[in-house]
């Protein structure tokens, strides 16, 4: 029974990457469920591992890049473990959900800062500008996505944000921006990023990741502002409440 509960401690919105990650995490989750370790402590543990990853990336060599990517992969598993453990131990909370989100974005800042230093050591001042763009974009993305979470999900159930957001995109599939965003949304997840970052590090393409991060982070906050107005403004939310499902 315990093994079955651990297997079912994921989320309905999990994609192929998250399901794979959670499979790796099951032994640790099962063990932690018998300890006094809290999900919030796991979140802080993942942030500490991300800090070590950032230090590795800052060294600016291939071997250190691979080590940093491997540590960031472990940090991503911590991110899966905290949610699984919270559901398994019935310790889900609004605070824990926000803490996990803050830990995720803080980990992005740590590795992007480390990658900026490492790429600067290898490629010169250009990467300082690229890194600054990635860091600023990450901060702005955190701010506007936090606003979107407040608009899309009840204050006491912020964990419902992903499901409600994806559902809103599905309902707005006639809009090309919504349709493309729905297809590419999975790329924004930490559980996906850890796989591609490890791959790029192994093939020696961390500088490419820096350019992609700078573009993606800034595109994310711009598109999120657009969706905040289109999908979650007061009139739109009122229309959703009057939908057939709401009326039923």
Descriptors:
mainly alpha
Task: Describe the 3D structure.
The protein is mainly α and 248 residues long. The chain is 79% helix and 0% strand. The longest helix is centred in the middle third of the chain and has 30 residues, at 94-123. The model is unreliable at 236-248 (pLDDT under 50).
What is the alpha-carbon Rg in Å?
Answer: 19 Å
Question: What class do helices, strands and sheet pairing give?
Answer: mainly alpha
Q: Main β-sheet, in a few words?
A: none
Structural shape: globular
**Distance separating the two termini:** 36 Å
Strand content: under 5%
Count every beta strand, where a strand is a DSSP E run of 2 or more residues. Answer: 0
- What does the average pLDDT come to? 86
Residue runs with pLDDT of under 50 for 5 or more positions: 236-248
User: Which bin fits the share of residues in helices?
Assistant: over 70%
N-to-C series of helices and strands: HHHHHHHHHHHH
Number of helices: 12
Would you summarize the structure shown here?
With 248 residues, this protein is mainly α. The chain has helices at 2-7, 16-32, 39-57, 62-88, 94-123, 126-152, 161-171, 176-184, 190-202, 206-230, 234-241, 244-247.
What does the secondary structure layout of this molecule look like, with pairings?
Blueprint: H1 2-7, H2 16-32, H3 39-57, H4 62-88, H5 94-123, H6 126-152, H7 161-171, H8 176-184, H9 190-202, H10 206-230, H11 234-241, H12 244-247
Helix pairs in contact: 2-4, 3-4, 3-5, 4-5, 4-9, 5-6, 5-10, 6-7, 6-10
């Amino acid at each position: 029974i315990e093994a079955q509960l651990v297997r079912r401690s994921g989320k309905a919105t999990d994609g192929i990457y998250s399901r794979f990650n959670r499979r790796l995490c099951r032994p640790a989750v099962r063990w932690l469920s018998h300890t006094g370790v809290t999900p919030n402590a796991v979140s802080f543990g993942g942030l500490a591992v991300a800090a070590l990853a950032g230090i590795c990336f800052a060294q600016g060599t291939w071997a250190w890049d691979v080590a940093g990517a491997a540590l960031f992969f472990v940090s991503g598993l911590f991110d899966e473990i905290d949610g699984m453990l919270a559901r398994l131990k019935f310790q889900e909370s609004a605070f824990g959900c926000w803490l996990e989100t803050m830990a995720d974005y803080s980990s992005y800042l740590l590795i992007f800062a480390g990658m900026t230093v490492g790429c600067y050591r290898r490629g010169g001042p250009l990467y300082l500008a690229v890194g600054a763009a990635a860091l600023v974009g990450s901060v702005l993305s955190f701010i506007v996505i936090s606003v979107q979470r407040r608009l899309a999900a009840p204050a006491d159930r912020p964990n419902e944000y992903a499901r409600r957001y994806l559902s809103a995109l599905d309902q707005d599939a006639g809009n090309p921006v919504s349709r493309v965003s729905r297809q590419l949304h999975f790329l924004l997840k930490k559980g996906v990023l850890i796989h591609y970052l490890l791959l790029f590090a192994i093939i020696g393409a961390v500088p490419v990741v820096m350019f992609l991060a700078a573009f993606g982070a800034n595109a994310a906050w711009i598109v999120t502002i657009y969706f905040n107005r289109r999908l979650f403004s007061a009139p739109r939310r009122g229309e959703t409440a009057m939908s057939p499902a709401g009326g039923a």
